[in-house]
Design a protein that fits this description.
The protein has 264 residues and is α/β, with parallel strands linked by helices. Helices cover 46% and strands 20% of the residues. α2 packs across α3 and α3 packs parallel to α5.
Length: 264
């Protein structure tokens, strides 16, 4: 994370300097929303068979006046550590719902928007109310919103997870497990969770063009999804070679730079 805290990209020379720069970086992040530095971008999710648009995933970007475009893997962990992710996440959710409803009002095809929930957001006591207000204020029908939660977050406390997911599901939203294959899910727990989609982690997809081992892993995940009767989205499709490999495996949704980069 410290790479974003100085302009040269080198690590601070001392703990005191690191602490000072981190404090400044945190203060900037606290004001980023008010200063209009945060942007919601959208990446298409398509039918891998014919590239028909099925939805979009929204992703937040931070354009810092001094550091430039700060990568999400640098500022999101800081937002989680400081608790800022709750307010930032609520803003992203509202923006995504409002934009999607605007597209619907303009006559664009209905396409579900997916929004990521961090572990901190998922444990927030007001998560249900946050989602409910975002839908109500934007006018977006609940079925056009999908909430994504990582597999590792879900398995932190399976009992509490099931209850939270059931509450969210009662609103009518769709739920998906993100980064699937990287955690330690058991089939018994997965069957208890009211989820609608599994999203295969990009690391498995990227291996399809490198070795046969990658195809076996994806095949195993697809077999599990078939048993659970859950559709699958493959993340990280970046070229035709990977796409063709996925087409041979069966019907699924796809997402990645091959179809489009995240855009405002």
């Amino acid at each position: 994370r410290t790479g974003a805290l100085n302009e040269s990209g080198s690590k601070p020379g001392s703990m005191s300097r690191w602490a000072s720069e981190r404090a400044a970086f945190e203060a900037s992040l606290r004001e980023a929303e008010q200063r209009g530095e945060l942007t919601v971008c959208y990446q298409p999710r398509v039918d891998a068979a014919d590239s028909a648009l099925l939805g979009m995933e929204c992703l937040v970007r931070w354009n810092h006046p001094k550091f430039g475009c700060v990568p999400p893997d640098q500022f999101i962990p800081l937002a989680e550590e400081t608790g800022l992710i709750v307010s930032i996440g609520e803003w992203v959710l509202r923006e995504a719902c409002t934009q999607t409803q605007n597209w619907r009002a303009q006559g664009y095809p209905n396409a579900r928007v997916s929004v990521n929930l961090s572990a901190v957001q998922f444990q927030d006591a007001d998560l249900f109310g946050t989602v409910q207000r975002a839908l109500g204020d934007s006018g977006l029908p609940a079925e056009w919103l999908e909430l994504e939660v990582t597999e590792s977050t879900l398995m932190g406390d399976p009992g509490a997870t099931a209850l939270t997911l059931e509450n969210l599901k009662s609103l009518g939203v769709h739920l998906s497990i993100d980064d699937f294959g990287t955690g330690y899910s058991s089939l018994s727990y997965l069957k208890r969770f009211p989820v609608d989609t599994l999203k295969i982690d990009r690391t498995f997809i990227s291996e399809l063009k490198q070795e046969e081992h990658g195809e076996k892993l994806v095949d195993a995940i697809l077999a599990m999804s078939d048993g659970l009767k859950l559709p699958v989205t493959a993340e990280g499709i970046e070229n035709e070679v990977v796409l063709e490999a996925l087409k041979r495996m069966g019907k699924m949704k796809g997402q990645g730079y091959h179809y489009g980069r995240p855009e405002p």
